[in-house]
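Q: What structure does this chain adopt?
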Amino acid sequence: MKKILFVFFAISCLFAACDPKEPIEPPATYDPTPYDLKIGDFPTPDLPADNKLTIAGVQLGRMLFYEKRLSKDGSQACADCHKQADAFSDIRQFSIGVEKLPGDRQAMAVMNLAWHQNGLFWDGRAPHVRDQALGPIQNPLEMNETLPNVVAKLSADKKYTDQFIRAFGDINVTSERVSLALEQFMFSVVSYNSKYDQYLRGTATLTAEEERGRVLFFTEYDPFGSTKGAECFHCHAGHNFTNDEFMNNGLDTDASMTDEGRKKVTNDPADRGRFKVPSLRNIALTPPYMHDGRFATLEEVIDHYDHGVKNSATVEFILQYNLQPGGLQKTAQDKADLIAFLKTLTDTDFLTNQAYTKPE
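A:
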């Protein structure tokens, strides 16, 4: 009788396994298919040769970017402080980590990192995106997790081990591979289709206010001549609206400076008060502004550069006219025009691009 029951169940299981309604998923295999990086009219980025973008690698990085298990208590992912709807930024002055503690600097927007070649974070302490990717995971003020714990959690999930096979060729989950996959995904996050980009392509027209703002943005300030521009382009130019440098933009005097910025990394007194110049793309969507989020609005930012720049030992020479009594003396209309132009850098397609959303 036992033999009959055994045969019956064996046959039943065999038929169940062959049920066409429940197809067997094929085993994961390595997939080196290159990822087609969409860059619009931007120049081809100089990406690292040892981490070429693949469809599988970018997808793994996307999964990890939204994975809450990268945090100590499973409550936060990278995406919680870099929301796509806010142009992958955090509109809080300081992000709140898993221990309910605030960060010490405002979270920078994650976009167009494929063109950043001069260090990541406000102080440039991470040489490459892969280095930056692991920082928040281990930071006690942020996700406060250890890399061995992250590896253990991902290794126990077949969904992830399969994707590591597709992306890297075998089942081994390592912190280095986590960083490389996150780097691939963040390289893929590109904003290139703002109204201003369309204007450059001849498919959109700026309003009179936006055009006046554009001229102000790209014009020198000559205290002795007729050109009285805002000189923004000295630091925010090119396709990504940043010079990718570390600069002191006159936020504090020497006496009032509480964050030494780049000097904490280089220990060079010349770097005191210098911070990474951020891209102005999608700037209208990424308040608050500056490394400490001290300015809540673009109006406050414009006022700072117009007449609020403070002198210090390392303040940039290019701000010499901003430091003069009365500053650049921009009118209310000038300021409104500048803000109107800055809003043309908003890329609405970027905010809803399905390639960057949380994977199902």
